[in-house]
């Protein structure tokens, strides 16, 4: 559902003191933190919220919604006020055009907090199909028009004779998901750019280049499973010939029934992702509205809880979060404590 700009004059007159502005047409004031966004970040956010509620009994438990990164950022950037989220959880960095949308709607003070690393894992059932892939092979298997040509591959062997003659069947994230954005950026576009003609196309027509490199086939070989990564896990367990694309934390949580598929000969695991050797490694973020910090009870404290939970030895490592390097953790702590806001230059 598309949100309209809900930045209203009464809010401005109240100097953005949301909790005391009364009814603004979006349900009045709010006494609990509301976060929307990434399905990959969702289990981490839920654990932080649960721990926060136990340790901070004076505040209500935060509300966490899984909307996908893109959908969550759209909701977050729709305006300032109690009927808009305080936080957007993201499995990728905010895009420049998304930040400009925030600014256009009056969300001009955005706090960016890096919360850790995840890996974009390709996986199959423990006793299922085994594939040794590269970004190029994945692109050629899943692109709607690989290198601008008709897609003809039916089996993995059609893509490369060294792969099994099994049908190409991949469960993956939808276009609203940050996991899909990461899949396009880290895998599909890398595989596409391995072709010299695509490099030339990028220089001549960047819009066409992006279309050719990121559009996935719609003939049933790639199946959009929505924002529920757990559903992909279940599908892999019931269909051993299928492959899934999701965040590494879901793979780690289900290693008893699933196996990671190597990319460029590198397995997705904690060490390869934290070191950056795994091609699908990515950083995750929490975005917060500074205007809401002193208006929504518990928001400031919840941001601090995120930082402590994602630190070395914190509880999030126990459910699959890969801890950021020390310098990035220091950056996160500074952002949450001083409430420093980002600018368009930060996203260049």
List the helices and strands and how they pair.
Elements: H1 9-13, E1 34-37, H2 42-55, E2 63-64, H3 69-76, E3 87-90, H4 96-104, E4 110-125, H5 135-142, H6 156-159, E5 170-172, H7 178-192, H8 196-204, H9 206-214, E6 222-224, H10 229-238, E7 243-247, H11 248-253, E8 258-260, H12 270-274, E9 281-289, H13 290-293, H14 299-309, H15 326-338
Parallel strand pairs: 1-2, 1-3, 5-6, 5-7
Antiparallel strand pairs: 3-9, 4-7, 4-8, 4-9
Written description of the protein model:
With 348 residues, this protein is α/β, with parallel strands linked by helices. It folds into 2 domains: 175 residues, Periplasmic binding protein-like II (D-Maltodextrin-Binding Protein, domain 2); 163 residues, 3-Layer(aba) Sandwich (D-Maltodextrin-Binding Protein, domain 2). 37% of the residues lie in helices and 14% in strands. It contains 15 helices and 9 strands. Helix 7 crosses helix 9 and helix 14 runs antiparallel to helix 15.
Question: For the CA atoms, what is the radius of gyration?
Answer: 21 Å
Write down the CATH topology of the largest domain. Answer: D-Maltodextrin-Binding Protein, domain 2
Structural class, from secondary structure content?
Answer: alpha/beta
SSE arrangement, N to C: HEHEHEHEHHEHHHEHEHEHEHHH
The major sheet is characterized as: 9 strands, mixed
What percent of residues are in strands? 5-15%
N-end to C-end Cα span: 29 Å
Flag low-confidence runs: 1-17, 19-28
CATH architecture descriptor name of the largest domain: 3-Layer(aba) Sandwich
Question: How many β-strands, per DSSP?
Answer: 9
**Chain-averaged pLDDT:** 89
Please give the CATH class of the largest domain.
Alpha Beta
- Helix content, binned percent: 25-40%
**Domain count:** 2
**CATH level-four homologous superfamily name of the largest domain:** Periplasmic binding protein-like II
What form results from the Cα inertia axes? globular
Tell me the number of helical segments per DSSP (H or I, 4 or more residues long). Answer: 15
